[in-house]
Amino acid sequence: MLLTLLPDLVVIRGEERLAMLIRLVADEARATRPGREVLLIEAFRATGGITAPPGLWRGPGYPHLSIALRALHSDPARHWTVAALARATGLSRSAFFARFEREVGRTPMAYLTGWRMSLAKDRLRRRDGSLAEIGASLGYGSASAFNTAFAREIGQPPGQYALSTAQPAREDEPV
Asked: Fewer CB within 10 Å of terminal CB in the chain, N or C?
């Protein structure tokens, strides 16, 4: 799911270790095996995140932003506010907002919405719960609110997305 938040193209110069990790991440993403995002996290650590263009790639390189990203990822259903995230990082609201937007390339709430939609898309592909259950697990107060947010962000209703992307059952899974 973190992979969906990265840009389509990442240029790496002079970082052989990082280039190797990116190739491994791409291989793992195609294989869709459990734990595949561990390699992406290692790639973040390898760069320090500082020289990359704005985006998720840079955020983990900054301790304050790392705290906020970890909080958003660990509890996406929480009713987050910029003020609450700023408090968690020890920055003022305005300093946190400006730094987050500058380094991550999106506002904190836009990032949270993107993260929630990545989680929702994954669950919809796997048919992991009803629309109401998925929406509630991501902090939406009703199926209607989830449907509206999903359609606005993804460009189609979640039910339609689920039908168009559902993964077929594996042979070893009960039907």
From this structure: C
Q: Report the distance separating Cα 55 and Cα 10, nearest Å.
A: 11
Residue 22 lies in a domain: yes
Question: Which of 12-21, 67-76, 103-112 is the least confident region?
Answer: 12-21
Q: Are 135 and 142 in contact, with CB atoms under 8 Å apart?
A: yes
> DSSP assignment, residue 167?
P
Main-chain dihedrals φ then ψ at residue 106, nearest 5 degrees: -145, 160
pTM of the model: 0.68
Structural domain boundaries, residue 30? 1-47
Residue 2 within a domain:
yes
Residues 101 and 140 in one domain: no
Provide the CA 23 distance to its chain's centre, in angstroms: 20
Q: How far apart are CA 152 and CA 82, in angstroms?
A: 22
- Give me the number of domains the chain comprises: 3
Residue located via tokens 């669950």? 123
Confidence of residue 145 (pLDDT cuts 50, 70, 90): very high
pLDDT tens digits for range 80-124: 999 999 999 999 999 999 999 988 889 999 999 999 999 999 899
